[in-house]
Amino acid sequence: MKLRVFVYAVLVAGCVLAIFPYFLTVLTAFKGPGQLSETMPWEPGVPPSTAAFHRLFASGFGGYLVNTTLVTAGITLGQVVFAVLAAYAFARLSFPGRDALFWVYLSTLMVPPVVTMIPLYLMMQKLGLVDTWAGLMLPTMLGTPYAIFLLRQFFRSIPADLEDAARIDGAGRVRTLVSIVLPLSKPILVTVTTLAVVANWNSFLWPLIITSSEDKRLLSVGIALFKGEIGVDYNAVMAGSLIALAPLLVLFIVFQRFIVRSVAVTGLK
């Protein structure tokens, strides 16, 4: 009994530590300019104020929101399509060096993104894609090793007999993939899409480096660079953070059962 109480106490403490920053974000976003200095961080502003949201959108935040939505949708679509094609090839097609190529590609997960940031920027510069939508989206649009790994593992769990039966009926590789494999892969497709949306929605370093125009600025960069007339407007920054966080929270709540199921099937712990 004492052990159980101790375990629950530790779990509750960990939960509080994890949730507390988000709690402060909500409280700060709904405080007026004077309430931030007049109250403790964990005290709500009375009465709640939406002035920070008005200042935020008056500064062009709505454009950042639209840019982020479009860029996230485009990159996510590209990542899912190319990851599906690559994963199916690694899972079902036979060609020389298939497994070696897969593990070499997967090993790039061990390389920190900052290591390739400068060479990637120089490539975009040589191609004339600095401060363009193409330069912003192309480097991550053609699939990611982690997404390909998850999809490959899931595809390998689908009985090959189903695909053999489809080929006997005259279906080609593409028809088999579209009509047989993908309908059975909804959980992992939802998982890969969710992970891609979260990663691209929160992307900061690459958009900061590759773009300089305000009309191409994304949410994460816009929030980081947001300043008031005197110093940093923390109320507006927290309001922007809250707006950026809300879609991701809703996305996870809606699709969490698919994520859990796909992780269980692929054998990841």
From TrEMBL:
Q: Where in the cell is it found?
A: Cell membrane
Q: Which domain of life is it from?
A: Bacteria
How does it sit in the bilayer? Answer: Multi-pass membrane protein
- Report the transmembrane regions from the record: 7-30, 64-90, 102-124, 136-155, 176-199, 234-255
Q: Recite the UniProt keywords alphabetically.
A: Cell membrane, Membrane, Transmembrane, Transmembrane helix, Transport
Which is a Gene Ontology cellular component entry for this protein?
plasma membrane
Domain ABC transmembrane type-1 stretches? 65-255
Q: Which GO terms describe its biological process?
A: transmembrane transport
Q: Which InterPro entries match?
A: MetI-like, MetI-like_sf
Similarity comment: family membership: Belongs to the binding-protein-dependent transport system permease family.
Name by which UniProt lists this protein:
Carbohydrate ABC transporter permease
Q: Identify the species of origin.
A: Kribbella jiaozuonensis
